[in-house]
Amino acid sequence: MSTQPSIPPETQTAPSEALALLLVEARYERLHAAFMMAATALALGRPVILFGMGSGVAAFCRSWSGVPEHVPGEAGRLNAGVAGVEVLRDAVQEMGAEMMVCDSGLKAMNLAPQDLVEGVRVVGLPTFLDCAATARQLVF
């Protein structure tokens, strides 16, 4: 059950305190940083949008096979007592983050909507920009 309100439907825009994170690469360290930032913002009560484009769509897939260094990255984090990307992704989704991927990025990575975790929306870049509107945007 979500504890934070998600970003309003695509016809509305995010409030100015919202955070929009663009995941444009599938490198483990970048994805971990993005999910840590998202989890922190959500814990502070800020709405969050996560948007995957290019190889970054791999962060939203059921399988982590598209994320280089996923296995050693997860092992290193877990051995250090730090949440890995799998735990973080589940947490940010549970806390109400809006998760989207770019339709062209999905095609470019030869993926289909059924490859994504439940709740991830496939949208075009204009929809993301409309939803993110006044949100602070960071690229990972």
Could you name the key traits of this structure?
globular; 140 residues; 5-stranded parallel beta sheet; disordered N terminus; Hypothetical Protein Ychn, Chain: A
What is the strand tally?
A: 5
User: For the largest beta sheet, what order do the strands appear in spatially?
Assistant: 4-3-2-1-5
What percent of residues adopt helix (DSSP H or I)? 25-40%
Secondary structure class reads alpha/beta
- Biggest sheet, in brief? 5 strands, parallel
Per CATH, which architecture? 3-Layer(aba) Sandwich
Structure overview:
- The protein is of the alpha/beta class and 140 residues long.
- The protein has one domain: Hypothetical Protein Ychn, Chain: A (3-Layer(aba) Sandwich), CATH 3.40.1260.10.
- It contains five helices and five strands, in the order βαβααβαβαβ.
- The chain has a five-stranded parallel β-sheet with strand order 4-3-2-1-5.
- α1 runs parallel beside α3 (85-94).
- It is globular.
- 40% of the residues are buried.
Structure in a nutshell:
The chain has five helices and five strands; from the N terminus they run βαβααβαβαβ. With 140 residues, the protein is of the alpha/beta class. The protein has a single domain (19-139), classed as DsrEFH-like (Hypothetical Protein Ychn, Chain: A), CATH 3.40.1260.10.
Topology (SSEs and partners):
Elements: E1 19-23, H1 28-43, E2 48-52, H2 70-79, H3 85-94, E3 98-102, H4 103-108, E4 121-123, H5 125-132, E5 136-139
Parallel strand pairs: 1-2, 1-5, 2-3, 3-4
Helix pairs in contact: 1-3
